[in-house]
């Protein structure tokens, strides 16, 4: 690997070169990251310390909050720190770690969202068999499968990126190390590698989104036979899930399901799935969920 490159660090061009804009972004993203950490930790602790942890939906939600923290923390602290310095450098090793961590935790989060959709399908479409279908052993296996899926997706991508030769240009037109910007500065023909990356990341994103879309179509179709109160409660829960899916998958599909090239809009869309969507997840899942709000109120009032 050492013989294939003479680049020990990369220079991130960041979001903007305007000093005032960087200060504004620093304040904004520092607030967003703090809100993300507080919100997800609040959900995590409230679920773990209440009977809700034994319900499959909240068990998966606690894992989603953990992944939100891990996923965003692989990029956001570096982004915030870089907004205060003129030279935004990142070592080769840290750059490769960002590539791996983003795709590893991102894929697990996508698969956990899919598992949560399956949980809602079982609860609404198979209510009499729900506890049998979603027993704790099966829930653990589904979470384990999501982590295994993250590894299966991210390790091949990481191996392809780490084999790329970098022997000259080291400026990355982004605020973190991602696959397509790295392909642009590699000193070799990256067409085949780019196609393989699109086939991997793009198809994972598209197939998962299609599965989720049809799952919720079936769920909404089944709700026609429920009572008004049952429909209201189910729509409240599913509405939260659908909002998170749209916020996360919309920008992700634009970023990865396309020819392997860079667009000026990439940085803006990346903000949605690296900072904005994870920040809003706690609000989306608590404001529209009376059980979650009651559990948080009861636990923190007792504390």
TrEMBL record:
The keyword Transmembrane helix applies. It is a multi-pass membrane protein. Keywords: Cell membrane, G-protein coupled receptor, Membrane, Olfaction, Receptor, Sensory transduction, Transducer, Transmembrane, Transmembrane helix. This is Olfactory receptor. Putative odorant or sperm cell receptor. Residues 39-285 form the G-protein coupled receptors family 1 profile domain. Gene3D superfamilies: Rhodopsin 7-helix transmembrane proteins (1.20.1070.10). It is found in: Cell membrane; Membrane. It comes from Nyctereutes procyonoides. The keyword Oxidoreductase does not apply. The chain crosses the membrane at residues 20-45, 96-118, 139-156, 203-223, 235-256, 268-287. Belongs to the G-protein coupled receptor 1 family. GO terms for molecular function: G protein-coupled receptor activity; olfactory receptor activity. Pfam families: 7tm_4 (PF13853). InterPro entries: GPCR_Rhodpsn, GPCR_Rhodpsn_7TM, Olfact_rcpt, Olfactory_Receptors. Its main location: membrane. One of its GO terms (cellular component) is plasma membrane.
């Amino acid at each position: 690997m050492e013989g294939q490159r003479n680049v020990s660090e990369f220079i991130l061009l960041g979001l903007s070169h305007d000093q005032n804009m960087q200060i504004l972004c620093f304040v904004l993203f520092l607030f967003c990251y703090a809100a993300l950490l507080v919100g997800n930790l609040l959900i995590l602790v409230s679920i773990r310390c209440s009977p809700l942890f034994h319900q499959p939906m909240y068990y998966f939600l606690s894992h989603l909050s953990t992944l939100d923290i891990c996923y965003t923390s692989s990029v956001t602290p570096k982004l915030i720190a870089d907004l205060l310095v003129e030279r935004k450098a990142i070592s080769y090793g840290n750059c490769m770690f960002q590539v791996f961590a983003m795709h590893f935790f991102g894929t697990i989060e996508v698969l956990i969202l899919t598992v949560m959709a399956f949980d809602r399908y079982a609860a609404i479409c198979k209510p009499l068999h729900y506890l049998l279908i979603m027993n704790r052993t099966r829930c653990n296996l589904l979470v384990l499968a999501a982590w295994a899926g993250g590894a299966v997706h991210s390790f091949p991508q990481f191996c392809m990126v780490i084999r790329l030769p970098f022997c000259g240009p080291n400026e990355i037109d982004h605020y973190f190390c991602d696959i397509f910007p790295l392909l642009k500065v590699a000193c070799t023909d990256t067409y085949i590698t780019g196609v393989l990356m699109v086939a991997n990341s793009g198809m994972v994103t598209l197939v998962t989104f299609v599965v989720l879309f049809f799952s919720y179509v079936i769920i909404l179709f089944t709700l026609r036979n429920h009572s008004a109160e049952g429909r209201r409660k189910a729509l409240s829960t599913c509405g939260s899930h659908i909002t998170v899916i749209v916020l996360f998958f919309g920008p992700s599909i634009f970023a990865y399901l396309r020819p392997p090239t860079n667009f000026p809009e990439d940085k803006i869309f990346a903000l949605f799935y690296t900072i904005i969507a994870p920040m809003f997840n706690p609000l989306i899942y608590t404001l529209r969920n009376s059980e979650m709000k009651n559990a948080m109120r009861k636990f923190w009032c007792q504390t």
